[in-house]
Amino acid sequence: MRTLFHNNQTVPHAYEGGISELRRAITLHPIKRPSIMRRMHAHNRALRLTALRSRRVALIGDLPMTKTPSLTRHIANTTRDLRHWDFISSNSILFCTGQVNCPRHTVDLSIRTAIGDVVTQLFDEFNSNARQRGRMLQFQNIQYGYVRVEPRFGVDYVLDMVLWFKKFRPPHRATLSVRRHAYVQQTFGSLEMTSDAALRETLRQRTDKVIRLRKVNSSEEVDWSKVALPPQQSHIFIILPLSGRADTFRRFTDHLRNMCQDRNRFSLVVVLFTSSPEEDSAISATLRELRSDIDVQVIEMGQALFSRGLALARGAAALTPDALMFFTDVDMLFTCETLDRIRLNTVRGAQVYFPIVFSEYSPEMWSDNDRLLSDAFHYGRRRGYFRHFGFGLVSLYRADLDLVGGLNVNIKGWGMEDVDLFEKCVRSPLRVLRAPDPGLVHIYHTVRCADSMPEAQYTMCIGSKAASLASLDSLVDQISVYS
After folding, report:
1. Which intervals of the chain form a coiled coil (predicted)?
2. What is the pLDDT of residue 389?
3. Which residues contact 183 (CB under 8 A, 6 or more apart)?
4. What is the pLDDT of residue 362?
5. What is the pTM (predicted TM-score) of this model?
6. Could you tell me if 353 and 395 are in contact, meaning their C-beta atoms sit under 8 angstroms apart?
7. Which fold has domain 236-482?
8. What pLDDT was estimated at residue 219?
């Protein structure tokens, strides 16, 4: 009875968390806020939409020309084309291969949510005619399971479940604990297309509503009407912290000058810390040459101790709220296509782009073929690797940087400011787009980790230094030479 007539006793924060328990409820109490009522309505419509999509798939399956359903929707002709399963244990640990964090890690929230929805729908279908059959199935837990994604078809599950089998018709009333295997296929829906402009507007309106909802008091009603949002600028401001390293800066500017024909679509903001007189003189000469081709703005930091977080914050402060910013480093080389991806993947008030950078190993450990290549944009296993845990490069609008709380300017020296900004973006209403970008290459350089660094920064610095020395293949070759 309490499942049908749902009364949440956690007032005044009722229904602000998970609402999956409301699937079978026919009345809800208490709901005091219009925003919560709207959330309940949206949840109900989502359940209805899921049911209609399931019904559509079932009807399509009944058509004469439809193939007979099979557990094998994709036949692999090569080992490369074979889709591997991931194993999920009873303690929510996922065992996998060929991915970040493998061979084992905690099951992601998205997978846990998907499996929970699958189990709920599965038992709803089992018990849809429970009264006629005189028996009911009740879920207990999952002993183990397998999951894999077939990109063209959907998601496959094999779930070993413990459940209660209840017979409630006399004289055979009984309750048994049984184990059963469930083979489940989630089929992708039909292809839907939309324009880039429509998608960006939808994302911006949706995020704006979330931000407005967070700002109002519990007693106020939210205005859900569509609002006119400020325009988006496509001109990119490349913000570069710099202290010394004149030769590396010369390489950066030479590449920047030659990489793209249309130089009016981006500007360079150099946040310059004073170094040695020779280095500063060489940097000044390079800047004078660069100004003839590219719009350059220099922010002098004087004798201040180098801090990447402070430099990026000062560079951002010099721009207007509608400025599209790209935080980079002097060791980076990038292509004109990367700038196009920055414009496409960064949405003001909705999305932040954290590209995954390809980082070179030490050239001393490259293969002979890699040494013959003339430019940096090659991606052999022995040449470099994608930095899945590096967050230093990011593109976002100045207004969005202020929204998430800005940069931590108290972090001195190398590292940690990027992780701090990434965590702020994840906690914010903004969506984070994280993907490898083949047009971004970090050129190898010697890393020096000062003993005076805080422990967390020093550990991260040593880890980055070790990871960039050589590939595993090269290390194995070295072992065979000296063993």
Report:
1. none
2. 82
3. 71, 156, 157, 158
4. 81
5. 0.81
6. yes
7. Spore Coat Polysaccharide Biosynthesis Protein SpsA; Chain A (3.90.550)
8. 55
Residue ranges of the chain with per-residue pLDDT less than 70: 1-25, 29-30, 69, 98, 216-222, 367-368, 370-374, 413-414, 481-483
Per-residue confidence (pLDDT) for residue 327, from 0 to 100: 96
**pLDDT at 413 (0 to 100):** 64
Handedness of CA 137, 139, 143, 147 (dihedral sign): positive
Q: So what's the pLDDT on residue 120?
A: 86
Q: Using H for helix, E for strand and C for coil, what is the string for the chain?
A: CCCCEEECCCCCCCCCCCCHHHCCCCEEECCCCHHHHHHHHHHHHHHHHHHHHHHHHHHHHCCCCCCCCCCCCCCCCCCCCCCCCEEECCCCEEECCCCCCCCEEECCHHHHHHHHHHHHHHHHHHCCCHHHHCEEEEEEEEEEEEEEEECCCEEEEEEEEEEEEEECCCCCCEEEEEEEEEEEEEECCCCCCCCHHHHHHHHHHHHHHHHHHHHCCCCCCCCCCCCCCCCCCCCEEEEEEEECCHHHHHHHHHHHHHHCCCHHHEEEEEEEECCCHHHHHHHHHHHHHHHCCCCEEEEEEECCCCEHHHHHHHHHHCCCCCCEEEECCCCEEECHHHHHHHHHHCECCCEEEEEEEEEECCHHHCCHHHHHCCCCCCCCCCCEEECCCCCCCEEEEHHHHHHHCCCCCCCCECCCHHHHHHHHHHHCCCEEEEEEEEEEEECCCCCCCCCCCCHHHHHHHHHHHHHCCCCHHHHHHHHHHHC
Tell the residue number behind the tokens 């480093």, with chain if given: 329
Q: Where are the domains of the chain?
A: 5-61, 86-187, 236-482
Closest CA to 111 of 96, 124, 125, 126: 96
The encoded tokens of residue 78 equal 């090569």
Please indicate whether the domains covering 86-187 and 236-482 agree at the CATH topology level. Answer: no
